[in-house]
Structure of Stem 28 kDa glycoprotein:
Amino acid sequence: MKVFVFFVAIAVAAWQCQGDDHGVNFQVFPLRMKSGLGGHYIPEISCESWRLGVETHNIIEFSGVPKDCIGYIGNYLVGDQYRSDSKTVCREAYLYVKTLNISNKDAWVFDIDETALCNLPYYADQGFGAEPYNSTAFDEWVFRGVAPPLPESLKLYKKLVSLGIKIVFITGRPLSQLDVTASNLKKAGYLKWDKLITKDPSYHGKTAVIYKSNERRKLEEQGYNIIGNIGDQWSDILGTNVGGRTFKLPDPMYYVS
Amino acid sequence: MKVFVFFVAIAVAAWQCQGDDHGVNFQVFPLRMKSGLGGHYIPEISCESWRLGVETHNIIEFSGVPKDCIGYIGNYLVGDQYRSDSKTVCREAYLYVKTLNISNKDAWVFDIDETALCNLPYYADQGFGAEPYNSTAFDEWVFRGVAPPLPESLKLYKKLVSLGIKIVFITGRPLSQLDVTASNLKKAGYLKWDKLITKDPSYHGKTAVIYKSNERRKLEEQGYNIIGNIGDQWSDILGTNVGGRTFKLPDPMYYVS
């Protein structure tokens, strides 16, 4: 394979770095979808590049999935790649944990929606992020308390628990959803935790970064040592008191600042 | 398309969130390469997920491209997607800049290798990151001074210059490579800049995060207002004084801490 790559490279690397003024190669750039439905053309942006841009925090504060990418994102979320991408993140988290000497003060912070629990059965009916956020409909879904786990997150959770690591859930869900969230977590297989922190009304109008940073600071003041922190939003893992290492799970559906 | 996605979703979203103990679906997870050579199986990890893990800073301090992913990464780098992914990042950077009122103190920080300049003609001969870093061979390549520009980065550079934004290059290259780097930049189309900062020997043994943070702090002490900062390594954009917004260009070949 090395040899093959070498020859490919000699042939192509030269023009790969060149601009549009250097021949035909970049006339194919970058507007053909390589995934999703039909491989049709999209002006301005490739859906795969859009998703990478979201996951790398280059594309921020987006209001929803671009209309032209609905099919691509839907197929991603119901296909193998979303699971594979999640598995890779959780695997790295576990490889990191195995390098540590765990103490009884060590804690791991989990976000809930699209991190511990999977709302795909709800979002599947919302165009996988294409529809504007509907708080009424989402609350109805939450109060059903039937969200399944994200399986790779649940596997990580079980490994962390077995190592004696304290589990803390910090969610943007309100206090009014605390009980149903706790029962949903148990039903999904998250059987125990140290704390389940919901968003207090005092944070109304504050960003998730501010809310979650402040709650993590309080945890550390209480003596917890946050060794890790995992979420699907950058706002779960940016800010202060982020923990020894942070892990970003994929979520191309929505953005929470 | 919405309707299609809806039906796909109903059929699949239910099991998408379920674990390995729920039937056959996850027996295909996640080990088939969807890209790269031959779509053969790889234990433990999909190369596409590995690349996403690198770009999202979930996978850190890796010593090279996994052997099983050499073909996949090589094809990515010489194919459309690398260009498309770079274009999307630079496009977001420009969309951000257009929201600002530019003053004559505003500066944009560029990294050089795999950001302003493209070393693919060199790395193509090194298995695209599969071979261990060879400083002698890389220095020989650098001193040739013939690295082409990354075309999307050059387009962004030209737009920033046209807006009167000061350009500062901060590179991990040493002072001994300052002259050849300056001439290479000009040859590649980067015709002017305010500062070109190379890594001083006093930073020997220090990480790129420390070196680049300290140089950015000095820039701000000199009165520059860093409105943006773009690099291919997370160490280009993490740390302090990172700028108004940071942008991460793709680079699955190597990791600089």
Notes: Residues 47-248 of chain A form a domain with the Rossmann fold fold (CATH 3.40.50.1000). The first helix of chain A runs from residue 2 to 16. Chain A touches chain B through 75 residues (CB under 8 Å).
